[in-house]
Amino acid sequence: MYVKLLTIVFFSLLSQLPKSSSQVIDFTYNGFRPPLTDISLQGIATATRKGLLKLTNYTVQKTGHAFYTKPIRFKDSPNGTVSSFSTTFIFAIHSEIPILSGHGIAFVIAPNASLPNATSGQYMGVFSIANNGNDTNHVFAVELDTIRSSEFNDTDDNHVGIDINSLKSVKSSHAGYWDKKGQFKNMTLISRRRMQVWVDYDGQTHQIDVTMAPFKHNKPKKALLSSVRDLSSVFLQDMFVGFSSATGSVLSEHYVLGWSFQVKGNAPALALSKLPKLPNFTRGPTRIHRFYKNGMPLISLLLIPVLIIYSLIFLVRIIMRRRQKFEEELEDWETESGKSRMKFKDLYYATKGFKEKDLLGSGGFGSVYREYDQLEVEMILKLGLLCSHSNPQARPTMRQVLHYLSGDAVLPDLSPLEFRGLGIHHRIGELDMFTCGSSMVDSILSGGR
């Protein structure tokens, strides 16, 4: 009798002990048809009658969460290592504007079946500005991000990342997959097409693998992302798994069609034929259709005249400034004898805008720049020779000089023979020294040759 009583007590105590560490925990959802007894929906997340898990709708700056309500034991003891786990899910993103979206979906493993302090926008409903990056978060996530946030060092607006306690991913990559030939194939997260993701963690090697592929494609052999991280300090003994999504200023719908999960094993395969179908996205929202059809042409009609007017005003101002820049006053002596001085405009362009590098020097009469007109130099030389003619009668008057300079009269041809007696006269004491300059004159008139 005593032995029988001990046996009953022993088996009674044994039944109260935690389940064996070899126990396998798994679940599979081939669609999410209401009522969902084991799925907690928060924020704007809903389950449609057709079985779609709709995390967000066309509401700006909102979050949507969907968590498996039962805690999952990832460690055999509080201080133990994290067991291997695996999950796969199929998702789709539909944006109000086909080329923009916000902000994506994240698969999340967290200490609670809710994220009450998380915010929308770039924080994807997972973190907030207050707790992003804190080790006390104990959050692991795989983000499917459709917005590039420079504060998180995002690579682009179409990437997949592994997040640990922060949205600054420990590893990220442009969305896509490796085919059988080893070639990378791009995938666009906001293409409105169904895609499948696999997340695997090896408890022995601590390797995290994230793989994705188009709907109905086999799982690629090569993972999109691989990172070795021991999650023992991140995970508590019991954690909750689920999804998070958020909208920003661009309205987007984020869908999950199917989901399976398993600890200490591979996630069960999804029955693709049983998954719910997506809504018809071909037409898109009528609000956007009207905008492109009526709004854009109206804006264009209003903008074109404004641009033309501004362009004309800009051109008129440039012309007026140029005229004011080169405007000159006629002096009395120019009126009497005819305009003879060189225009300021010609001087400006001849000296290339009076650049400092061409400045030769400055004196009492202003600055001298390194530039000249070859024809005018030749005319000055010839005029100088004519004014120094040995025969005073052959020398031009001042009025003739002005006419020559202004171009009203043509200089007569100069023969070197006429200036053969011209030289340079030096008086030293009582001695007159006269040096013949005929060769110099010949050289000048012949261009130095």
Low-confidence stretches: 13-22, 283-289, 421-449
Number of helices: 7
Q: Tell me, rounded to a whole number, the average pLDDT.
A: 80
Strand content: 25-35%
- The geometry reads as elongated
The helix/strand class is alpha+beta
Number of strands: 22
Largest sheet: 8 strands, antiparallel
What is the percent of helical residues?
Answer: 10-25%
How do the helices and strands follow one another from N- to C-terminus? HEEEEEEEEEEEEEEEEEEHHHEEHHEEH
Through-space gap between termini? 141 Å
Q: What is the alpha-carbon Rg in Å? A: 45 Å
**Oligomeric state as shown:** single chain
Keywords: ATP-binding, Glycoprotein, Kinase, Lectin, Membrane, Nucleotide-binding, Receptor, Serine/threonine-protein kinase, Signal, Transferase, Transmembrane, Transmembrane helix
Subcellular location: Membrane
Family: Belongs to the leguminous lectin family. In the C-terminal section; belongs to the protein kinase superfamily. Ser/Thr protein kinase family.
Main location: membrane
What does this structure look like?
With 449 residues, this protein is an alpha+beta fold. The protein contains seven helices and 22 strands. The protein has helices spanning 2-16, 286-325, 332-337, 344-350, 374-387, 398-406, 438-445; strands at 25-29, 39-43, 46-47, 53-54, 63-68, 72-73, 85-95, 104-110, 140-145, 159-164, 171-174, 176-178, 184-186, 195-201, 207-214, 225-228, 238-246, 252-263, 359-363, 366-369, 423-428, 431-436. The strands form five sheets. Strands 1, 3, 4, 7, 14, 15, 16 and 18 form an eight-stranded antiparallel sheet that branches. It is elongated and about 125 Å long.
